[in-house]
């Protein structure tokens, strides 16, 4: 019985990660429809992994550890670029509306 409780606890926590990340993403962008697919975060991760796979020489085990890290870096880079562009448009529109 004890292992079933631990398993249920683990399964309930697996849903917390995507829910929390979606909530943070929607809060940072101030958009209720924000989604990693819409903002291009998934594409940035895929681009990072593809470029790394084609340009770097991987040995057998190193590919398992490095490609997810490169995918994360590509996703975060895309998110930061998207956030900077969005913030710049908001700041520019506020500036022109005030003066």
Uncertain segments:
none
Assembly type: single chain
Mean pLDDT: 81
DSSP strand content: under 5%
Tell me the number of structural domains: 1
Major sheet, described briefly?
none
The helix content, as a percent range, equals: over 70%
Number of helices: 5
Q: Which structural class fits the helix and strand makeup?
A: mainly alpha
H-E order:
HHHHH
How does this model look, in words?
- With 99 residues, this protein is mostly helical.
- The protein has one domain (2-98).
- Helices cover 84% and strands 0% of the residues.
- The protein has helices at residues 2-14, 16-29, 36-39, 41-55, 62-98.
- Helix 4 (41-55) packs across helix 5 (62-98).
- The longest helix is centred in the C-terminal third of the chain and has 37 residues, at 62-98.
- The radius of gyration is 19 Å and the shape is flat.
- It starts with a helix and ends with a helix.
- The mean pLDDT is 81.
Structural descriptors:
99 residues; 84% helix; 5 helices; single chain; flat
Quick synopsis:
With 99 residues, the chain is mainly α. It is built from five helices and no strands.
Task: Give the SSE layout.
Blueprint: H1 2-14, H2 16-29, H3 36-39, H4 41-55, H5 62-98
């Amino acid at each position: 019985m004890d292992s079933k409780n631990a398993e249920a606890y683990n399964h309930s926590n697996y849903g917390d990660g995507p829910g929390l990340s979606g909530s943070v993403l929607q809060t940072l962008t101030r958009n209720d429809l924000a989604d990693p697919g819409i903002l291009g975060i998934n594409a940035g991760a895929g681009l990072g992994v593809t470029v790394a796979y084609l340009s770097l020489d991987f040995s057998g085990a190193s590919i398992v550890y490095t490609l997810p890290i490169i995918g994360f870096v590509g996703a975060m880079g895309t998110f930061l670029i998207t956030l900077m562009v969005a913030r710049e448009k908001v700041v520019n529109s506020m500036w022109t509306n005030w003066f």
